């Protein structure tokens, strides 16, 4: 699955344009159909179509927004949309999250610059800045938050998709916080480490600590979900997550540094850094 996601993410826009029929099923055969008919189709049909847009972040993002709205509607009725989805469908949504939010080409440029230029030094903070500034912003992330809180997903879904989705969620939340405050990425990362320390020491909850640092409650909760995913996977699926990388960059190490989680080093920065 990891190779599938990366290969399709790196497909050229020209290929996507001339080969759109390969990715689009008849129910979304045109932009007009796509925009006007989402509410006419079942959740399973929409999820099936997410897999058809690996090189079209905008379309995948629109489908994720529709699923998030359905997730909200289900919650208002006291229901959980995830309960009606198979593991395969849940993984398909996570794949859509990765393909629509992770700025692969920008990440590749940054890694190439830091590994090929002897005057450049790799920085987790700069890498976070790249993800936050270049990644797509998702206004409604309900479906992502629900899936990353789902026990079946955490225990059985592809570790690569889980970790990259957690990265997407926290980057999108940080983008919103940065845009609505006067704090730099450095300041925001410092606040996150304060929240982690509060959780680890038992002096307070991660979410409450972030709110005390000036984060909006809904943003703090989204970041908390990514934090909980990171700690859970490290403790329960460490052998798998230690091998998760994006273009040769170890994402487990990145998330540990992002949240200020201290553990024995098992990964590495990109080769040559």
Description:
It is a single chain. This protein is mostly helical. 66% of the residues lie in helices and 1% in strands. It has 17 helices and two strands. It has a two-stranded antiparallel ribbon. The longest helix has 21 residues. The protein is globular. The C terminus is likely disordered.
What is the gist of this entry?
The protein contains 17 helices and two strands. It is mostly helical and 273 residues long. It has a two-stranded antiparallel ribbon with strand order 1-2.
Give me the secondary-structure category.
mainly alpha
**Poorly predicted tracts of residues:** 4-26, 265-273
**What is the tally of helical segments?**
17
**Distance between the terminal alpha carbons, to the nearest Å?**
27 Å
Mean pLDDT: 82
What Rg, in angstroms, do the CA atoms define?
18 Å
Describe the strand arrangement of the main beta sheet, using strand numbers: 1-2
What would the principal axes of the Cα set say about the shape? globular
The H-and-E topology, N to C, reads as: HHHHHHHHHHHHHHHHEEH
Give me the oligomer status: single chain
The biggest beta sheet reads: 2 strands, antiparallel
Main attributes of the structure:
273 residues; 2 strands; mainly alpha; disordered C terminus
Can you lay out the helices and strands and say which pair or pack?
Blueprint: H1 2-9, H2 13-18, H3 20-23, H4 31-36, H5 43-50, H6 57-76, H7 87-101, H8 104-116, H9 124-134, H10 142-147, H11 151-156, H12 159-179, H13 185-201, H14 206-212, H15 217-236, H16 238-241, E1 245-246, E2 249-250, H17 251-259
Antiparallel strand pairs: 1-2
